[in-house]
Amino acid sequence: MDVFRVKGNGPLSGTIEVGGAKNAALPLLAACLLTKETVRLTRVPDLSDIRFMVEILRHVGAKIENPEPGTWEINAAQLSHIAPYELVRKMRASICLLGPLVARLRRAEVSIPGGCVIGPRPIDLHLKGLKKLHCDVRIEHGYVFIDAEDMRGSVVFLGGRNGSTVTGTANILMAATLAPGTTRIECAACEPEIVDLCKLLTKMGACIEGIGSPELVVQGVEELHGCEHPVIADRIEAGTFIAAAAITNGNVLVKGIAPNLLGAFLDKLEEAGVPIEPEADGLRVLPHNGKLRPVDCITLPYPGFPTDLQAQFCALMACTDGISIITERIYPNRFMHVPELQRMGADIAIEGPSAIVKGPCKFSGAPVMASDLRASAALILAAMAANDETWIQRIYHLDRGYEHFEHKLAALGAKIERLDDSEMPHELYQE
Ligand code: EPU
Question: Active-site residue numbers?
């Protein structure tokens, strides 16, 4: 298995170009099943999660071409309704198949994704929504069986105890595009990735009003057609590079991201004293020269502070002088990065859904273990701020969601190498 060796190497500097968003591309790929015609997606990031999704789409019958890097052409003229556990268990986002399969075939048999390290990831809201659309939903032997013969529009409320659901909104939206009548989705997720899905669906011929708002109104149509669509920029990748620039006191232009996609995150960085200036095609992070302030934050659905940037922000706050309280309202147990950051010298205590971060710490290199996608990024950030060497194991988590991460960081001056774990000093290696 691959590992990273990272050596703190001072401030990052240069320009990076943000790629297409994983969390947009996954539901967009699923949406291609809604038509018999070919859909061409561009700016699809090169990630292991994308390759899993392509594998699942092929399994249900889609013909898929990858004519050039970042471009995928999907034709689902033939489609079957079964997504088995062997494939679905590899990636939770495969639950996004439910909506398109019931819309096209009026039935689906999709395995329920297994456990997840960031905490419980129920699908009750997805199923509630489908029931509201008059689908018959049953769970047996670890699978959801849906009979959607009688599917038709309705009012669907998608709010749960932690707000709306992103992939749940995607599923109900996709199902509604081909359901007779009007569907009103209340408390819909407003994440930019849902806006991007609405844009693709509209190009395919769907009738959707209220795009970007918590109330989406969909008029069902008879069929959808092919089109071409570029995936929206990855706001989480952009935010991670902004945090990387800040944690190394760097000067970095993060290109290809609109500031409004990062609202609450940028607001918190500004409060912390990170100078960020908008430029024609992106955001420039300037050196703060060690004058960072601690800042409290609470993760919330968009446009609130994104949970997918919480771990990286935690690493940054660990370097500031004072106490920050970081509260998770989306996944209250999403703090697996904390014990590893502690091993690198951070002073962080977990109190319920909050991390109490006491800085400043000077990170020191250590062998650490990545536990999930965003935790991996946080460890790399901490490693770049350390002045010695850090070894990071289980970086396959990172490969799920960051495209060519080490190459992009190396181009900014980071010392980061991907090695086989056999090259890791034996005494540091953990089974
Ligand atoms: N929830 C329910 N019932 C449901 C669905 C969700 O209670 O039926 C709860 C969840 O437990 C959570 C909250 O609602 O507390 C939000 O979950 P959501 O369904 O919005 O999450 P998701 O759609 O499964 C997507 C991203 C995640 C990101 C979350 C929140 C994709 C493929 N995944 O997950 O991305 O953290 O939205 O923004 O879009 C990541 O990229 O690292 C990642 C985990």
Answer: 116
Candidate from 48, 117, 158, 330 with most ligand 1 atoms within 8 A of CB, to mutate: 330
Which CATH number among 3.65.10.10, 3.20.20.70, 3.40.630.30, 2.120.10.80 corresponds to the domain 81-225? 3.65.10.10
pLDDT tens sequence across 226-248: 999 999 999 999 999 999 999 99
In this structure, the dihedral spanned by the alpha carbons of residues 223, 229, 235 and 237, taken in order and rounded to 10 degrees, is 120
**Atom 2 of ligand 1: nearest residue by CA position:** 122
Cα dist. 201→27, 162, 206 in Å?
11, 27, 5
Is there a shared CATH topology between the 2-16+233-425 domain and the 81-225 domain? yes
Give dist(CA 137, CA 146) in Å, integer.
5
| Alpha-carbon gap, residue 40 to 23, rounded angstroms | 17
Q: How far is the CA of 312 from the centre of ligand 1 (A)?
A: 18
Nearby residues of 37 by Cβ (< 8 Å), 6 or more positions away: 75, 77, 224, 225, 226
CB–CB of 299/310 below 8 Å? yes
Q: What's the CATH fold of domain 2-16+233-425?
A: UDP-n-acetylglucosamine1-carboxyvinyl-transferase; Chain (3.65.10)
Residue 369 pairs in a beta bridge with 393
User: In the chain, what are the domain boundaries?
Assistant: 2-16+233-425, 81-225
Tell me the percentage of the chain whose pLDDT exceeds 90: 92
Ligand 1: residue whose CA is nearest its atom 20: 165
pTM, full prediction = 0.98
- 250 vs 193: CA distance, rounded Å: 29
pLDDT of 169 above 90: yes
